Amino acid sequence: MIRSTGISRDAVQISTYLDDTYLEQADTRVIAVGHRDGAPWVAVEHCPFHPQGGGQPADRGWLEDAKIVPVRDRESGLIVAMAPEGGSLPLFAEGQQVRARIDPKARMAHAALHTAGHLVEAVGRMQGWEMVSNNHFPGQARIEFQVPETETRLADPDGRGEATAILRASVAAAIADDLPVFARYEGEGRRVVHLHDLHAAPCGGTHVRSLGDLAEVVLPTLKVKKGRVRVSYTAAHRSL
User: Fold this and answer.
1) Backbone angles phi, psi at 183, to 5 degrees
2) Could you tell me the fold of the domain covering 107-237?
3) CA 51 – CA 36 distance, rounded (Å)
C-alpha cells in the first residue's frame, strides 16, 4: 500500500498485482491525476499494473479503453498510468469509476521470466556463487554471479559445460517437483518471495504460482568474464 504525499490525504493505493499475479482487471476509482515531465498521468485505488523495476519490464494495459504504461511517480510514490510514447490519455477526474486491465499474455511472460530468474539464482547459490546482477527482460534474461577464486573448473570449456549441466539438472528437478511459489511480508514489511524452501529473496515482482507453471526453460552454456559467471536463460508460462 502506498500513500501519496502532497496530493490528497485520501489517495491511498493498493498494489493488487502484488497479491495476485493472475488478476487481469480491477473495477476501481481514480484517486489522483497529475503531470510528469509535462505528460498527464492517472492513479487508481486498486492498481493491477506492475511498473518497470527490479529487473522486470512494465505491464502493458488499459484504463477504460485507453492504452497505458505504468510508471512509479517519484514525487507522489504512486504507480501512475501514462500514455505510451506517441499516445494520449482522455480526461479522467478524481473519484471517477474506471476499469483497469492488464495484457495477460505479457504479464505471464514477465512472471515466468522473473520466477525462472529466482530459480537460476537458487541453483547458482547451490554452487557457492553469489548473485551480483539480474535482468528478467524478454530476450535479455540473465543472472550474473561472482564466483570464489577457488572455482577453477570454469577456466576451460569442459568445466563450463559440466557446470552448465549441473545447473540445468537442478532447474529441471525443481520444476518437476512443482515447488510452490509464494510471497510473505517479513521484517519491517519487506515482501519476500519464496520458492518453497529452496530459495527466498526480497522482491516486488510478479511470479507464477508454482515452478510447474514454467515451460521452455533453457540455459545456454554459461559464460565467464573477469571472475563473473553469466547465466542466460529463457522461460515461458505453460498453457493455462
Assistant:
1) -115, 145
2) Threonyl-tRNA Synthetase; Chain A, domain 2 (3.30.980)
3) 15
Class of domain 2-102: mainly beta
Name the nearest CA neighbour of 112 among 21, 219, 18.
Answer: 21
Cβ(12)–Cβ(44) below 8 Å:
no
Tens of pLDDT along 68-108?
999 998 888 899 999 998 889 999 999 999 999 999 999 99
Please state whether the predicted TM-score (pTM) of the whole model is above 0.85: yes
* CB 30, CB 42: distance < 8 Å: yes
Can you tell me the distance from the alpha carbon of 212 to that of 160, in angstroms, rounded to the nearest whole number? 27
Starting at the edge strand that comes first in sequence, how are the strands of the sheet with 199-202 ordered? 181-186, 190-195, 199-202
- Report domain extents, the chain: 2-102, 107-237
Beta bridge partners of 43: 32
